[in-house]
Design brief:
Shape: globular
Radius of gyration: 25 Å
Number of helices: 18
Structural class: alpha+beta
Bound molecules: ligand BES, zinc ion
Helix content: 25-40%
Strand content: 15-25%
């Protein structure tokens, strides 16, 4: 049965019929060519060498198979891979063919199996422009001493460095042997790591994970222990700073365990990558990958670590079965993130972060097409990346906060813990969750459930007015003082803002509250007093540069240029390039022309996913990668 078709009607029917269980269902993943309902990959043995000169990963992937339909071929996903040979258990070649290339999905690789085949070995190499791999030159690292490579699998990029069933509904265990240039460290998001006597790196992941969570990094790295089970990895030049910033990691982990059940992955480490990394963080199991732009010096941006850590429950343990179920990963994770932040830093901070999230959501909802405002979003024929809006994140989290509010924390926490426990190491659809929610929470207390319009939340656009909205006296005070300051006209005293003791969150609210048409002279006065153009906090700096650029505040231009050339985090790049496009002409050169000129210099330094977004934004034709 197609579980994503479960609607309100079926929800009611579900009260009488037994609920479908994940193991019995094969939801259709429109972003994969694989047919795991016929032949399913269960284990991967990866044996590869990293070649920085050729920008190539090459070697073999041996896949252990479960043959459900004995007559069916094995279907895999690939993207720009060169397949050199395919062999069976007997070492003999197997017939295989690559299908037509789809620009989003890559190519299916179909392999004919013989009756006894339990494993196939694929000899292959990657393309220098493989989307999952970013090869950095030394000058893109902090110490500028050596090259760096890291992988990014989510959503459907793993297929560009390993041929496999690249669907979040297919889980595999793996072991890996990786040969790298001498002197470079190799880490993988695997529980077990060791070295052979010849220097080869070995890894083993004993828990079944979806392909998008396979991850590797290689470069000059050092690590610092935070606790017996937590460490920070980074370039040696920043590892102390990173360890100081992330010193609450183990407390976060312990808090999440108290709230939502045991941590099932043994270790939890964070790898701080070079600034080209296109995301804030990526929840690779046992080893979160993170941007260095969270190192603000005052722990004000560590919610990102709470978020990636929370994915160890919501996402890595219980995984969205297809990309249209992405809100089950991200909405749940944002909810958990806020609960962790409240445990460690208190309610006031957590509520400010919730409100800033809602502010971002409302801003984005004003521009998103209705079809993209629903949690159970239709991504057929599109890149799953298009579903990465605030909707799955902040609307998803708001839905869970509503359930918490109506049923109370005690019952809701027990419900969530049971959901994670009963679906551990499974991939689930929205339909599965809705049936589980009905049976295990809503049906138990019709009075509390009354007025929760599940269908409206999941399948209709907009943010329902029932969304809980915490109050934050601190953020309200910021708004009030901006108003007073604005009302004061030219004579307004900046001291009246009371910004002296503002936290990062208050600054972010302040910058978001500034009127759209604020004049560059006013920005100059703010800058003279608060040195915003020199802010060492990436969130404040990016928000400031966005405002300053739109207003045509010239002194910010060099700082913007520097930022765009150094940082590859897409969340910052997109609004900054948009601001540049909108900015008034400078020396007779319009915003779009200046944006394109900067982009031409910066583009080779950006990751493929950031390039894709910005190519669209700036109307740049993609040259062959
Ligand atoms: N899993 C996501 C990153 C992701 C999503 C990568 C979809 C590729 C496709 C990660 O957990 C995430 O949500 N990161 C956010 C930070 C978070 C605090 C909202 C980011 O990178 O901005
Ligand atoms: Zn996330």
């Amino acid at each position: 049965m197609r579980c994503f078709l479960v609607g309100a009607a079926l929800l009611l029917a579900a009260c009488q019929t037994p609920a479908p269980r994940p193991a019995e269902t094969n939801p259709v993943d429109v972003h994969s060519f694989a047919r795991p309902d016929r032949v399913r990959v269960r284990h991967l043995t990866l044996d590869v060498a990293l070649d920085f000169d050729q920008r190539q990963v090459r070697g073999t992937a041996t896949l252990a198979l479960e043959r459900i339909d004995q007559a069916a071929p094995l279907r895999l996903d690939t993207m720009d891979l060169h397949i050199a040979a395919v062999r069976g258990d007997d070492g003999e070649p197997r017939e295989h063919r690559l299908g037509t290339r789809d620009p989003q999905l890559g190519m299916p690789l179909e392999i004919d199996l013989r009756p006894g085949d339990r494993n196939v070995t694929i000899e292959y190499r990657t393309h220098p422009g493989a989307a999952a791999l970013q090869w950095l030159d030394a000058d893109q690292t902090d110490a500028r001493q050596g090259p760096f490579l890291y992988t990014q699998g989510q959503a459907i990029l793993t297929r560009s460095w390993i041929p496999l069933q690249d669907s979040p509904g297919v889980r595999i265990t793996y072991d890996a042997r990786v040969a790298a240039p001498e002197g470079l460290a190799v880490v993988m998001a695997a529980g077990e790591r060791s070295r052979d006597s010849d220097g080869t790196h070995r890894f083993r992941m004993t828990r079944p994970i979806p392909a998008y969570l396979l991850a590797l990094a290689c470069g000059t790295l050092a690590s610092r222990d935070i606790s017996p089970r937590c460490a920070v990895w980074a370039e040696p030049s920043i590892v102390e700073k990173a360890a100081a910033e992330l010193s609450d990691m183990d407390d976060m982990l312990a808090a999440c365990e108290r709230l939502f059940g045991p941590y099932r992955w043994d270790r939890y480490d964070v790898l701080v990558l070079p600034p080209a990394f296109p995301f804030g963080g990526m929840e690779n199991p046992t080893l979160t990958f993170a941007t260095p732009t969270i190192l603000a010096g005052d722990k004000s941006l560590v919610a990102l670590i709470a978020h990636e850590l929370a994915h160890s429950w919501s996402g890595n343990l219980v995984t969205n079965a297809t990309w249209r179920d992405f809100w089950l990963n991200e909405g749940f994770t944002v909810y958990l993130e806020h609960r962790i932040m409240e445990e460690i830093y208190g309610r006031e901070r957590a509520e400010m972060e919730i409100l800033l999230g809602l502010q971002g959501l409302e801003k984005e909802l004003a521009e998103l097409p209705a079809a993209d405002q629903v949690l159970h979003v239709d991504l057929e024929g599109r890149n799953p990346d298009d579903g990465m809006t605030s909707v799955p994140y902040d609307k998803g989290a708001a839905f869970l906060r509503l359930l918490e509010e109506r049923f109370g924390r005690e019952r809701f926490d027990a419900f969530l813990s049971a959901w994670f426990d009963e679906h551990a190491f499974e991939s689930v659809t929205t339909g599965h969750f809705l049936v589980y929610l009905q049976e295990n929470l809503l049906a138990h207390d019709p009075a509390a459930a009354a007025g929760i319009d599940v269908d409206r939340w999941v399948r209709r656009p907009g943010l329902p007015s029932a969304a809980p909205r915490p109050r934050s006296p601190r953020l309200e005070a910021v708004e009030a003082s901006v108003q007073r300051w604005r009302d004061g006209g030219d004579q307004a005293d900046l001291a009246a803002l009371g910004a002296g003791d503002w936290t990062t969150h208050e600054w972010l609210r302040f910058l978001a509250t500034l009127p759209a048409d604020i004049h560059a002279d006013e920005l100059a006065r703010l800058d003279a007093r608060f040195a915003l153009t020199k802010s060492g906090n990436s969130e404040i700096l990016a928000a400031w540069l966005e405002r300053a650029t739109i207003a045509g505040y010239a002194p910010a231009a060099p700082a913007l240029e520097e930022f765009l050339l150094r940082v590859g985090r897409r969340k910052f790049l997109k609004p900054l390039y948009e601001a540049l496009v909108k900015s008034p002409p400078q020396a007779g050169v319009d915003g779009l022309t200046r944006a394109r000129a900067t982009y031409a210099r910066a583009r080779p330094r950006y990751h493929a996913v950031a390039r894709r977004t910005l190519d669209d934004l700036l109307g740049v034709e993609e040259e062959g990668s």
